[in-house]
Amino acid sequence: MNPAKFEYHAPSTLQEAVSLLREHEGDAKVLGGGQSLIPAMRFRLVQPDHLIDLKRIHGLSYVRRRDGKIAIGAMTTYRAIETSALLQRCAPIFAEAIDVLADVQVRNKGTIGGALAHADPAADLPAVVTAMEATVRAVGGRRSRSIPAHRFFQDAYTTVLGDTEVISEILVDPLPRRTGSSYQKFANKASRFAIVGVAAVVTLDAKGICTRVRIGVTGAGPTAARARTAERVLEGKSPTEEAIEAAAARAGQGIEFLADLHGSAAYRADLTRVLTSRAVVQAISRANPGS
Prior knowledge:
Layout: E1 7-9, H1 14-23, E2 28-31, H2 37-42, E3 50-53, E4 63-66, E5 69-73, H3 78-82, H4 85-90, H5 93-99, H6 104-109, H7 112-118, H8 125-131, E6 135-139, E7 145-148, H9 149-152, E8 153-155, E9 158-159, E10 166-172, E11 179-187, E12 194-204, E13 210-218, E14 225-226, H10 228-234, H11 241-248, H12 265-287
Parallel strand pairs: 1-3, 2-3
Antiparallel strand pairs: 4-5, 5-10, 6-7, 6-10, 8-9, 11-12, 12-13, 13-14
Helix pairs in contact: 10-11, 11-12
């Protein structure tokens, strides 16, 4: 099936893109890598009157340090993130998640900004940015704003972005010492989307106590979510098998589990428990490699 008719725009600056969004407010879609939007348009699930392509805008693809944080441009491809020496050293969970994301063709074209703005319930990176407590920078509203990742996703394919807003970059903190991370997922064999995916980031003190735990879950419900109850169960405790299992058992608290042809709500709830345990165990082992 072919897309419905639309007018194509290829701005050369971010300011021009924002102007187009304002001019066609409510009738336009922003195109990043196109790996999700174009198929949706072909099936006429989405029918924008105007398509605003960001690929000709210079300066939106980068991974670099700035003011103590790692800044990732919105048009940075999965492949560029996966191969970034800076991220491999300071936030390796990004490369780990992208390694199990879709296929080579998608990783070469898909962009982090497009993935987050699309907010697919089964996408991998929403869990990662949630567990990493990333900040999403958006421009085009009444003012530019910084949005914590855990507040960015509202529902399936729905974010807090307004009709005239576009993601400019994502900011993450480098992982501190004695911190390990892990991304674990159970994937659909055909699409490689997550039936459930769990990202865990754990910091230990010198005595091996969990001082900071962050867990992001994707695929389980209509949007990526922080497993805050599980985090609180484990923080301040020695990461014994019993403590980890107690935390994992609460990872699904507050999630409205999906049920579809890939799995029931109960199945996803159990996957969330199992994958949380695996992710936390591996994050702890990486935080304390000598244990």
